[in-house]
């Protein structure tokens, strides 16, 4: 069942490794019951994005929330 409740949201997040920007201003919204795929070539920042979304990496700008609470 898909609902309008937002479970995970990223608002214009960026992640940097030193001077290198690995993820630039990504926004997404995930709701329960929805399937989301993140695709791209090697080195595009997919794994870095996932680490930022789960709180394992700090974001250099923007905000990630889980069930409305900042990570």
Describe the structure.
The protein is mostly beta strands and 71 residues long. It has one domain (8-70): 3-Layer(aba) Sandwich (Rossmann fold), CATH 3.40.50.300. The protein has one helix and four strands, in the order ββαββ. The protein has one helix at 46-53; strands at residues 8-17, 20-30, 61-66, 69-70. The protein has a four-stranded antiparallel β-sheet with strand order 2-1-3-4, with helices on one face. A hairpin with a 2-residue loop joins β3 (61-66) and β4. It is globular, with a radius of gyration of 12 Å. The termini are far apart.
List the topology elements.
Blueprint: E1 8-17, E2 20-30, H1 46-53, E3 61-66, E4 69-70
Antiparallel strand pairs: 1-2, 1-3, 3-4
């Amino acid at each position: 069942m898909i609902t309008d409740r937002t479970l995970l949201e990223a608002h214009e997040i960026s992640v940097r490794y030193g001077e290198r920007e690995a993820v630039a201003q990504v926004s997404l919204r995930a709701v329960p019951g929805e399937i989301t795929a993140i695709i791209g070539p090697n080195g595009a920042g997919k794994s870095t994005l996932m680490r930022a979304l789960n709180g394992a990496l700090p974001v250099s700008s923007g905000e990630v929330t889980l069930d409305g609470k900042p990570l």
